[in-house]
Every structure is written in C-alpha cells, then in structure tokens.
Design a protein that fits this description.
Layout lengths: L1 E6 L11 H4 L4 H14 L3 E6 L3 H10 L6 E5 L8 H9 L3 E6 L21 E4 L4 H14 L1
Parallel strand pairs: 1-2, 1-3, 3-4, 4-5
1,3,4-trihydroxy-5-OXO-cyclohexanecarboxylic acid (DQA) binds next to loops.
Length: 143
C-alpha cells in the first residue's frame, strides 16, 4: 500500500509558525513520526509540502495510479480552493483530510472546508496526532 502525505501552504514553517496554535514540532519531525507509524503498519509513505495550489493539484494528477491513498492537510486552501477539491474528486484515490488545530473552534472563515465533501473523513484538533489518526483511518479505509 502506497500513501502520499500532502502538506499545504505555510506548513513548511511548522514549529516556528504560531506555536500556540500549531505546536512546536517541525515538519521534518512530523514526517518522521508518520514514517515510523507507516513502517509499523507496513505501508510505504512519501511526504510532500508545497505553498502553491497549482503544484499540489498537478501532483495529485501525476500520482494517480501510483498511490492508493492521500493524507492531506490543505492548510488555508481547505477553506476556499474549489480547484484542489476538484483535483481530489477527479482522481480515483481515497483521501483523508487532517488539521493540527480544531478549525471549528477558530475564526468563522475556518469553519467551512470545501475539501471535506470529497474525502473519506476529516480529523481536526489533535496537533500532530491528527495526522497519525488520519493515517490509521486512511489505511483502514484502504484495506
Ligand atoms: C490548518 C488550519 C487552517 O485553517 C490553516 O490555514 C492552516 C493549518 C491546521 O492544520 O490546523 O494553515 O490546516
């Protein structure tokens, strides 16, 4: 089983970016934790971050047929990118959406996810552990 982890805009700054909201763990450490879990579950994992909507969309197109599942934190694109939503809907790959923060406890513009209707489910509010929970949920969906 092959899983692609996609981190959206500004997640390259994890650890230094608003640590009270997003935690002190950097992106490399987060990816390492995910890789550790993936090894335990005997799945292959690749992690990718981009600040560009179009790059994420092109990657989703490119990997169709190559990956079984996508674990995605779309960052702010969550709330407005119909193009990213359509990309996920266009490929036959199961996806799970994750957020470090609880987007429903924050500003009202974060309460809506345009991505949620095209993914299997969403995990929000557990810091880095949202990704771990999301990974397990995705693996379970794919089995
Ligand atoms: C986020 C929540 C988004 O609202 C925000 O724009 C992010 C990170 C999260 O992981 O909590 O960049 O997706």
């Amino acid at each position: 089983m092959k899983i692609l982890v996609l981190h959206g805009p500004n997640l390259n700054l994890l650890g230094e970016r608003e640590p009270d909201i997003y935690g002190k763990m950097g992106l490399d450490d987060l990816n390492e934790k995910l890789n550790d879990e993936a090894k335990k579950m005997e799945v292959s994992l690749d992690c990718y971050q981009s600040n560009y909507e179009g790059e994420l969309i092109e990657l989703i197109h490119k990997v169709r047929g190559e990956y079984d599942g996508i674990l995605i934190n779309p960052g702010a694109l969550t709330h407005y990118s119909i193009a990213l939503r359509d990309a996920i809907a266009s490929v036959d790959i199961k996806a799970v959406e994750v957020h470090l923060s609880n987007i429903y406890q924050r500003e009202s513009f974060r309460h809506k996810s345009v991505i949620a209707p095209v993914v299997s489910g969403q995990v929000s509010g557990f810091g880095y552990y949202s990704y771990i929970l999301g990974l397990y949920a995705l693996i379970n969906e794919l089995k």
